[in-house]
């Protein structure tokens, strides 16, 4: 991660009459992001999905739990755009409600994982030595703990609760993040700019969070975009065990699992949730790629 | 085969089946190949000790490993000789004398004698063993008192060994269905000496049921038991009728998930499924009619209510819930397998049809709920409906949850548990509402109605009604069938009024069966003597 190429000098000669305007790194990144078509597509798709799941259900004439036993397994039609399921519930409505759960779980759990993982990994990597050894052994131990048993223990202590699910998943997902960040920080801490910051008298906290973490955003963002879909699927698995969302509420993972069981006879039950889920996943990846490029301070500036 | 038998079940969904299949036929000439039946058996068995279990999947295995005094015949209706080669019944119907065959023996080579039955029944009735099925032996004189600890003198119980090969059973009342009931595993002999070596007689779950330790007297012996994978039994050389046994081996595969089971069947890993996923029924009817089976079944699917805790200690609440379930819709729009809506508890048979009927009346249900203090469901406490993990139970629960919500305004949550945990929750009363099923042990309403006696091992609702208990006793001592039927009608009416349980539908047995399995006849009570089952092209 050494950046060998000197930064281009602000070209004063291109705008002789004006003082060079300082451009913040964030603004810079935003410009680069806007020029990446795939990233824009991903971002827009995500926003549309979030809006649809957020406000869409208010416009639906059906409830996610509203059964109609006279109209089970209806094919997609004008009144049920995505058909109905085994109990005659409108799949489109359930998909929107399910999206609320899945997107929330994905974002919240990933945010929890991100916060814990980055701070923990950065501290371990920066200080090194015995503290690092101790902190990473703790991570190893938590890794070894079977996830399902861990979640069941949490449920036993705190009861079944959807918010707890967010925390439980987040509390497990941070481990890999901590390892990635620690490795990155270790390779960065001998860099000149860190020494420069230190010689200027900045505190450890400022050096880690202001100077080093922005330099490792690339791998962190990539890993984050992979975590979100992973978390969504994990939620489906826990729901099947009776630990996640409870019927009749749905989530994308639950809809996909149910749909897969019935795909031979009633393919729309799998196609629609599967498509929406894949779309979300692609969008996240495109956006993540774009963000990584945009935020990479070493990439060419123009 | 059999006609009666076992019972109990709380079981899951399903139905049973058997399969067969010859695993190796493709690779070798059929005549030389082992006949191995791979049988989808639903839940992993709790145990294979006949005194420690209540489930249908356990019963299937126990029927292969043990044999009672009488056995199922190939038609599934009659009674064939088992350990007893013949028997006589006294004119008043109170004394049964069984003549045991001299060549009956245990799989360890020891002879099976009349005193083995006496000791087995003593163990079954030992209060500290707490066998759920102990009440099945109550037709014997003195059995109830001994089981409840009122008497400690087993010689007062109506079972006597008159020599090595003669067993006398003395009954409290004329019990017309006794011979049918003897086919149930509660009446089977167990190897008391062996059990005594592994932790004592009054202990459930000791090591005597492990392969190597296990001793039985049935057509098959235990070869291998890998929990959650398979339980394998092979032909027993010591069985008195081993020449009749056709299969070489039965692999009981515990597959709780209906979709997994159906996939295994299609890929040839199972010869019979325990059930079929609801959404696959139409496919099988259309594409594989040769393999689709829809048999009548003497069973009822219901919700058990814990009546000891609010809000269900109020009969008005129970009635309100029971009155707004649209059973016709559940049967015709969700199940599709020929089931019948259950407006009363005991399934109808040509001999007995209940006149009790739980009305479907939403307005009255709302009225009752309001009277109980929850107008339009306001302030209704948080209620959980427990079911054992299975997609079809969940879908029915979701439908009923929604019916209660729209008609009564109450919200319940759904909770699923794995089979053993689920059984335990009910046993210990740690539930509010729980899905359950009951398959008759013998073709008589008594097998359903004796569930709800005060303190009965399979009651588990906390419900108790003295009139009901009296009627059951009166039915048992009735001297003719009309009188018994009258008592049963009254009991049915009490259940329909008091509702310790909410009946939902009467089962049919829907499953997939490999056409190679021979001798698998439809049975109202799915208890089979495995020796009649064969595999052939």
Question: How is this fold's topology laid out?
Answer:
The complex is a heterodimer of chains A (about 300) and B (about 525).
Chain A: H1 25-35, H2 37-59, H3 91-127, H4 129-144, H5 147-158, H6 162-188, H7 192-199, H8 204-212, H9 217-240, H10 252-261, H11 268-295
Chain B: E1 36-40, H1 56-65, E2 70-72, E3 79-81, E4 84-89, E5 95-100, H2 114-125, H3 143-147, E6 159-161, E7 166-170, H4 178-181, H5 192-197, E8 220-226, E9 230-235, E10 249-253, H6 258-266, H7 281-287, E11 292-305, H8 315-323, H9 327-335, E12 340-341, H10 362-371, E13 383-388, H11 391-408, E14 412-417, H12 419-427, E15 433-439, H13 446-449, H14 466-477, H15 481-498, E16 501-512, E17 517-518, E18 534-535
Parallel strand pairs in B: 1-10, 13-14, 13-15
Antiparallel strand pairs in B: 2-3, 4-5, 5-7, 6-7, 8-9, 9-10, 11-15, 11-16, 12-16, 17-18
Helix pairs in contact in B: 8-10, 14-15
Elements of chain A, N to C (H/E): HHHHHHHHHHH
Query: In percent, how much strand structure appears in the residues of chain B?
Result: 15-25%
Strand content of chain A: under 5%
Q: What is the overall shape of chain B?
A: globular
Uncertain runs of chain B: 1-31
Helical coverage of chain A, percent range: 55-70%
CATH architecture designation of chain A: Orthogonal Bundle
What is the typical, i.e. mean, pLDDT of chain B?
87
How does CATH name the architecture of the largest domain in chain B? Roll
Question: What's the CATH C level of chain A?
Answer: Mainly Alpha
The helix content of chain B, as a percent range, equals 25-40%
């Amino acid at each position: 991660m050494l950046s060998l190429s000197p930064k281009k000098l602000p070209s004063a000669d291109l705008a002789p009459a004006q003082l060079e305007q300082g451009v913040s790194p964030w603004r810079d990144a935003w410009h680069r992001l806007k020029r990446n078509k795939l990233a824009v597509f991903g971002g827009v798709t995500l926003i549309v999905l979030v809006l649809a799941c957020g406000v869409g259900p208010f416009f639906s004439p059906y409830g996610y739990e509203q059964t109609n036993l006279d109209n089970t397994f209806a094919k997609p039609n004008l009144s049920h755009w995505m058909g109905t399921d085994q109990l005659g519930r409108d799949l489109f409505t359930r998909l929107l409600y399910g999206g609320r759960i899945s997107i929330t779980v994905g974002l919240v759990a990933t945010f929890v994982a991100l916060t814990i993982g980055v701070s923990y990994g950065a501290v371990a990597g920066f200080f090194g030595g015995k503290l690092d050894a101790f902190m990473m052994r703790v991570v190893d131990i938590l890794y070894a703990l079977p996830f399902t048993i861990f979640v069941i223990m949490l449920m036993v202590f705190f009861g079944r609760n959807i918010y707890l699910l967010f925390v439980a998943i987040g509390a497990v997902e941070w481990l890999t993040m901590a390892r990635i960040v620690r490795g990155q920080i270790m390779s960065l801490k001998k860099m000149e700019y860190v020494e420069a910051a230190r010689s200027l008298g900045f505190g450890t906290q400022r050096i880690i969070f202001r100077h080093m973490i922005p330099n490792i955003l690339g791998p962190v963002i990539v890993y984050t975009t992979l975590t979100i879909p992973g978390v969504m699927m994990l939620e489906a698995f826990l729901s099947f065990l009776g630990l996640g969302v409870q019927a009749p509420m749905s989530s994308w993972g639950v809809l996909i699992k149910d749909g897969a069981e019935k795909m031979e006879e009633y393919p729309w039950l799998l196609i629609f949730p599967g498509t929406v889920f894949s779309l979300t996943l692609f969008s996240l990846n495109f956006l993540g790629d774009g963000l990584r490029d945009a935020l990479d301070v070493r990439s060419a500036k123009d | 085969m059999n006609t009666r038998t076992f019972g109990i079940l709380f079981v899951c969904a399903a139905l049973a089946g058997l399969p067969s299949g010859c695993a190796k036929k493709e690779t070798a000439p059929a005549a030389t190949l082992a006949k191995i039946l791979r049988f989808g058996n639903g839940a992993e068995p709790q145990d294979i000790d006949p005194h420690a279990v209540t489930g249908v999947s356990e019963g299937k295995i126990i029927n292969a490993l043990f044999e009672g005094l009488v056995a199922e015949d190939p038609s599934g209706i009659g009674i064939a000789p088992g350990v007893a080669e013949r028997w006589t019944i006294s004119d008043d119907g109170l004394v049964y004398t069984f003549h045991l065959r001299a060549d009956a023996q245990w799989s360890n080579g020891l002879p099976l004698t009349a005193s083995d039955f006496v000791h087995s029944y003593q163990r079954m009735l030992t209060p500290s063993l707490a066998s759920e099925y102990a009440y099945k032996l109550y037709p014997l004189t003195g059995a109830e008192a001994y089981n409840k600890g009122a008497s400690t003198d087993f010689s007062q119980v109506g079972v006597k060994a008159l020599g090595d090969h003669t067993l006398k059973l003395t009954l409290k009342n004329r019990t017309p269905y006794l011979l049918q009931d003897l086919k149930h595993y509660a009446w089977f002999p167990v190897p008391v000496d062996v059990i005594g070596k592994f932790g004592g007689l009054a202990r459930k779950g000791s090591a005597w049921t492990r392969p190597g330790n296990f001793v039985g007297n049935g057509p098959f012996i235990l070869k291998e038991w890998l929990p959650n994978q398979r339980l394998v039994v092979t032909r027993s050389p010591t069985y008195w009728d081993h020449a009749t046994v056709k299969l070489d081996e039965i692999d009981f595969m515990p597959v709780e998930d209906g979709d997994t089971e159906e996939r295994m069947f299609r890929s040839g890993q199972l010869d019979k499924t325990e059930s079929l996923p609801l959404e696959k029924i139409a496919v099988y009817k259309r594409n594989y009619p040769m393999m689709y089976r829809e048999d009548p079944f003497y069973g009822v699917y219901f919700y058990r209510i814990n009546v000891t805790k609010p809000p269900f200690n109020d009969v008005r609440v129970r009635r309100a819930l029971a009155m707004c379930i649209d059973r016709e819709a559940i049967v015709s729009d969700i199940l599709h397998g020929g089931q019948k809506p259950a407006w009363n508890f005991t399934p109808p048979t040509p001999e007995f049809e209940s006149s009790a009927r739980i009305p479907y009346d939403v307005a009255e249900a709302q009225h009752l709920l309001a009277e109980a203090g929850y107008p339009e469901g306001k302030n209704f406490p948080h209620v959980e409906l427990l079911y054992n993990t299975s997609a079809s139970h969940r879908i029915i629960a979701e439908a009923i949850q929604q019916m209660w919500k729209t008609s009564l305004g109450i919200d319940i949550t759904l909770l699923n548990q794995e089979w053993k945990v689920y059984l335990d929750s009910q046993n210990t009363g740690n539930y509010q509402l729980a899905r359950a099923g009951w398959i008759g042990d013998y073709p008589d309403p008594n097998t359903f109605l004796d569930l709800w006696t005060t303190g009965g091992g399979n009651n588990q609702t906390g419900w108790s009604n003295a009139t009901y208990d009296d009627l059951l006793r009166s039915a048992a001592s009735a001297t003719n069938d009309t009188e018994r039927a009258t008592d049963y009608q009254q009991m049915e009416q009490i259940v329909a009024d008091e509702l310790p349980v909410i009946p939902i539908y009467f089962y049919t047995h829907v499953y997939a069966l490999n056409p190679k399995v021979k001798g698998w006849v439809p049975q109202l009570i799915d208890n089979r003597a495995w020796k009649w089952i064969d595999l052939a092209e």
